[in-house]
Each structure stands twice: as structure tokens, then as C-alpha cells.
Amino acid sequence: MRAQPQFPNEQTDSGEFKRQSDAFRHWVTEDGRSGYPAAAGRYHLYVSLACPWAHRTIIVRALKGLTGVIGMTVVDPIRDDQGWAFRNGPGHSLDTTNGFHFLSEAYRATDPDYRGRVTVPALWDTVTKRIVTNSDDDLMRIFNSEFNDFTASSLDLYPAALRPQIDEMNDFLYERVNDGVYRAGFATSQQVYERAARSVFVALDQLNTRLGDRRYLFGAQFVESDWRLFVTLLRFDAVYHGHFKCNLRRIVDYPHLYGYLRDLYQVTGIAETVDFDHIKRHYYVTHDDINPTRIVPIGPMLDLLSPHGRSGLS
Q1: What do you get for the CA distance between the two ends of the chain, in Å?
Q2: Which sequence positions are flagged as catalytic?
């Protein structure tokens, strides 16, 4: 008997998970040439603390000092048959920007004919009353470069000299790690699962070796790619190892990856973006085809504040 797919419209006949494309890809620009000029208080970010794709944008918003410039509302981590919902609860709230009850209302306000899956993150424009973009890739770049007039931060996560290498690394991380764990977890055939899961660990082995003699993926300073990897490593032992059956090894079993994970977690402002309660409740309760009991495991115990010993690497 073939297992039921998590998202039937994104599953191939052979049992592979093929993630849908982002629906909205407009751009906020510093000079306004896109029709969406950067401005303080104009844009609002809808996110889930559980979702790694949304987490990336929360991190860049924090690192760039934009928390007072771009508003943010967190959805309930439990996504039911009505989708992502705005409810009061620990770490999440009602939508005070638009009064939406469900994120799908923002999608329909933007495109009444939209029929795809409703995803986070989504950047809402309070002037045009529509979603500008639901692409985490674009949002990371927008937050990095287009709001510099509204922040004292000079941090550049996408430096010009490294852009070709960063783009190449991002492609590798997406295919083999970020989406790789989903391809294993959402597979509906044994062969597809095994191929995806083994590919994840080949990639993790390579990354562990790479990080053996350098602090971050490209040297002494973290860039965009590091945070793309971080959000998956952070969730790995708590969720992907058991729930998605990526269980050949844990991140704590990789000395360089585990030190690297702790190093990034200890960057100022990052721990405040992490909510393991949201992360675990989302995956273990929402994916009831994978975890029909909806029991949320109490572990693992991770000491992400322990010394990472990586400060001397360059």
C-alpha cells in the first residue's frame, strides 16, 4: 500500500516530493523603482517560528536591525485543514494588521484565483493591500540590501566578491540539505526515501569536513548561506532525525557541524528567534499522516549555549 502524501499536488507518481514554486515574486527596492519603495512601517512580515524557510527571514530581519522597521506577526504552529491561522497563544498572536483569521485570506486578497498551497513567509504591503513576495530567497536579499537607509547595521550577507560562490553553495544546500530532509520525510516509497536520506548524509559529511578548518562556510565572517544551513541543522536532531527518518547520524555526532551550530546560535539576537516548542508541535502534530498519534517527543536535550570552540578559526 502506498503511503498518503503530505501534499498530493506536490507528489510525483514515483513517490517523490516536488516543492511548489513561490507564487509572488515582486521586490521592495531602496529607490522604489519596483513600485514597492523601502519605507519604515509600510511592510509586514507573516511568519511561522516553526518553518525553516520563514526562520531565515526572521534571522535576517533581526541581524539587520529591522525589527522596528518591518512589523511581524507569528501564526499558530499547528497548521490544520484551514491552513496557517492567527490565534492567540504562546509565541503567536492574532493578526492586528489586517484582522485576518487565516493567512489564506492574504493570498486571496492578492490573487482571488490562487489555488496553490499557502506558505510562510509572506511580506504584506499595507499600502497596496497585497503580498509583495512569499519567497524567502528574495526576502533575505531584500532585508539585506534594500532597507539600509533605515538601519545602522552595515552587515552585508551577500557581498559582491562572494556572490557566485554563495549562489553555488545555496543551490547545493537547497537540493541536498534544506529540501533534502523534506524529500526524505515526505517520500511515499522506500526507494525514494532511501535515496533522499542517503543524499542528505553525504552532504552533511561534506559540510562537516569543510567546516573543519574554517569558522563559517566562507571563512571568518558568516554570510547568507550560513543561515540557510543553520535553520536545517537547528531542527535536525529534534525533528528530521526521527520524524523524517533521517537517522543515520545526528548533528551532535558531527564535531564540526555541532560546534558550528552552537556558534551561530550564540550570535547576538539569534536565540530569540528560536522556539523549539513551536518547531516540534508543528511537525509532530501537523504531519499526522507521518505521526498519527500526534505525540510530541520530550527530547532531545540540546545544550546550544555550551562553548563552541570555533572562535580561533578563520
Answers
A1: 52
A2: 51, 182
**CATH number belonging to the domain at 160-268, selected among 3.30.310.50, 1.20.1050.10, 3.30.70.870, 3.30.420.10:** 1.20.1050.10
Q: Is 299 exposed, middle or buried (0-12, 13-18, 19+ CB in 10 A)?
A: exposed
Per-residue model confidence as pLDDT tens digits over 150-203:
999 999 999 999 999 999 999 999 999 999 999 999 999 999 999 999 999 999
- Cα distance between residue 155 and residue 144, in whole Å: 8
State yes or no: 53 annotated in a binding site: no
Beta-carbon contacts of 279 under 8 Å, excluding residues fewer than 6 positions away, are: 49, 50, 77, 234, 235, 238, 239
Confirm or reject CATH 3.30.565.60 for domain 8-150, answering yes or no. no
E strands along 12-77, which residues?
A: 43-47, 71-74
Q: Was 120 annotated as part of a binding site?
A: yes
84 appears as a binding residue in the annotation = yes
pTM above 0.90, yes or no: yes
The residue type at 211: L
